Amino acid sequence: MQAEMDKLAVDERTLTLRQRCLERKTLTPPLDGDPRLALRSLQASEAESSWTLRRGRLTRDLLRGVVFAVDDLELLVGRLAADSPEGRQERPAALEALRQQYPHVLTPGQSGHCQLDFSRLFERGIDGLSADLRTLRDNAQGKTAQVYQSFIDALDGLTGMVENAALTAEAAQAGASRTRAAELETMAAACWHVAHHPPRTFREALQLAWLAILGCHAGDRAWLVSPGHLDRYLWQYYREDIAAGRLTPEMALLLVEGLYLLVNEAIPDGLAVAVMVGGRDAAGNDITNLLSYICLEALRRTRLVYPTVGVCWHAGTPAALTDLAIELITQGYANPAFFGDETIQRGLRAYGVPGSESWDYVNSTCVEITPCGSSNVWVASPYFSTCKLLLDEINAQAQSANAAQSFEQFMAGYRLRLEGAIAQAVEAENQSRRTRQQYGGKPLQSVLTRDCIARGRDIDDGGARYNWVECSFVGLANLADSLYVLREEVFNQQRLTMAQLAHILDANFEGFERDRLRFLNAYPKYGNNNPAVDCLVGEMVHFVQQACGHFSVEPDASPYVPGAFCWIMHEQLGRECGATPDGRKAGFPFADGCGAAQGREQAGPTAAALSVTSWDASALVGGAAFNMKFNASVFARPGSAQRLLDLVTSFLKLGGFETQINVVDQRILRLAQANPEAYRDLVVRIGGYTDYFTRLSPQMQAELILRTEYGDV
């Protein structure tokens, strides 16, 4: 398999398009649809009393108005044309008018963060799927018939959007060289075909998939819909095209690279878009194929922030796939990540996903897990600052005449406080869900999500099979370290009273530096394979699992699912939080996932991995990232790549949820701080997602530099 990949020739096309993507980034129009088109559509439908019908027409009109651009090297159509200067000036006023006149259009809550279901679209094509929906509409009544009509209108809009793509490719043929004109003719023909009919080839399926994803973004405001498992839903087209001589691995690689570049063109920096490869089928058989390798290999030349490519790893994953991901990582590529398939499937089954479906999941953007093609899961809703709640409890007990007399009593109060925060969050999420049921609507995403068609319900009205909400608990490592210090200082050794501890923390350790250093250095810290402190993380994870299990979310009593995913919130919530008993000063970022706090891993990466796997991560379906950082010089040593492979696979076999790795040294990061223009494309892993180092806030840059940098593996 690797030998075939080695034959793929270097193509300057991708490298040139990569540079153009970086240069065009500031010109990319917003991805949530043109507010000018939205205003015109809603004004035109004022006489219609049904919001469901108006929403379908709105999606249709937004999609018909999408304008594309194509340059002289792109092989897929799907890059949004830059706005004119006048258009950029008009958008803010139109958006404000939209907010004022139709406030219900901008409904609260999340959207996207999923992989779509392409099976029916690929099997029937847009026209065939529309015909099926017309039959369902004609046999339905009332609201259900209106829902089906909104689905039909959305597909009509998708047809118009794909035809716009075809016309763009045709128009570009004027003045093109003979070779380029032939490429553009092929691109246009593919778009004309899939505008109405099922895809017949790998190119057509890939083209339709991207335009459908883009359509959900632009027509439904469903953000961060990911390509997901390309190696699964495109595999039959790849295999048949290769057998028929219509496609070569080299061309397939170029097309996948083209998709990756289009994703980077479309999505603003600082977010996340996922591709996942490998894994198992419902019978437990490995389903890695050559396309899995191509999806990883496409990172080599694109080397941009999107997509993150995750390896769905299990004990039967081919060694060659793991080797390729490790090779990319050791060469400084931040995007490959490893997901523990066994752990994740176990967690999904615990939340009610049957074994026949638990294999078919994706990291929806960063590390949050959602079922493929059937998800209306809201992720990171909301983030909980576990340490801010700890400070609230410390202050409350310090001022109470009935302060806890034991650590167990203190923890009872803290757990009650945390559960109260969860209850408030659930009510807020349910209110958002009720608003979306009444005023929402995402007809195109609904068509591409099981079981919206079968139920005759929009995704915002409970049409999807899975309607969970996934919240996220930030700062668990800081919490565990703090609880250990608090237990020793206040209860076991009785060196401080609760009031004295509160006073020290409120002062941000000013005048109490000796106490801070004692808190920081005299007690064990999570991340060093010390069961005495590691178990506190496990106990908190078990508690939040139970606490979340006491609640359900609308519209169908779905589970409220915990995670430890941070994105950038470990920096933001840390900035908003006072000093904590672990020796952390006010404003300093929290730990960036389920690993140790910055600089506290003193026993090396193996000990850190053992700490993270000392507790059951399967409950954290909302995501649990374990970040590792190595000095780049480590991998110049013989055998270091093999040792990293052994570390990663051991972590996953022990029950690790996900791990991602930065291979860059502090010297490079500091140079990038000083000269950002020279390091515009330096990509790093943050708290479950990938970003450009130079666009991070100064606080986030400092946090990344301060993470423990392993000098060996």
Mean pLDDT: 94
Widest β-sheet, arrangement of strands: 5-6-7-16-15
User: End-to-end span in angstroms?
Assistant: 27 Å
The quaternary structure here is single chain
The fraction of residues assigned to DSSP E strands is 5-15%
Helix content: 40-55%
Radius of gyration: 26 Å
Structural class: alpha/beta
Query: Looking at the structure, what is the overall shape?
Result: globular
Instruction: List low-confidence stretches.
Output: 1-10
Biggest sheet overview: 5 strands, mixed
Number of H/I helices: 28
Number of distinct beta strands:
18
Summed up:
This protein is an alpha/beta fold. The protein is built from 28 helices and 18 strands. The strands form seven sheets. Strands 5-6-7-16-15 form a five-stranded mixed sheet. The protein has a three-stranded mixed sheet with strand order 11-14-13.
